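Hi F.,

I've been meaning to write this up properly since the lab meeting, where we talked about keeping a consistent format for the predictions we share between groups. The idea is simple: the sequence comes first, exactly as it goes in, then the structure tokens exactly as they come out, then a line or two of notes. No screenshots and no reformatting. I'm using this chain as the first example so we have something concrete to point to.
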Amino acid sequence: MVPRERKKASLHEKLQLLRSVTNSHAINKTSIIVDASKYIEELKEKVERLNQDVADEQQSADDQDSLPFQVKVEALEKGFMITVFSEKSCPGLLVSILEAFEELGLNVLQARVSCTDTFRLEAVGGENQEQVENMDAHAVKQAVIQAIKNCSENSE
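Output, unedited:
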């Protein structure tokens, strides 16, 4: 009988550990296991998203090397810090970028722009909660790059 009780106690201990690791509030074994399964699926999705972000970032870095401009987007708590630098300023570039922000539902909270010989933009964009729920930095970066390309094509 002692080994059986020890085995049962060990199982209970492992279930409680699983419960705490997965932040489950379930009480019975089945619910704890179901919560753990959901938690594992969420982790798998996060890993896939991170792998995709790394691949996209690598592709973007490769693309950036061949482009005459640089775009950097950092995610903030509620929004993004966007930095754009181009050795040449084309007419309408600022407007094109701001239109891209508007299409994404980003409100410009703060910005610093210089567009004399070169073009430099540092902006903090906050998400408009009515339009944007889960926007990522990569989507913002791609929209800005596309806006720059469109402006460059229109000025040629």
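Notes:
The chain has four helices and four strands.
The radius of gyration is 24 Å.

If this format works for you, I'll send the rest the same way.

G.
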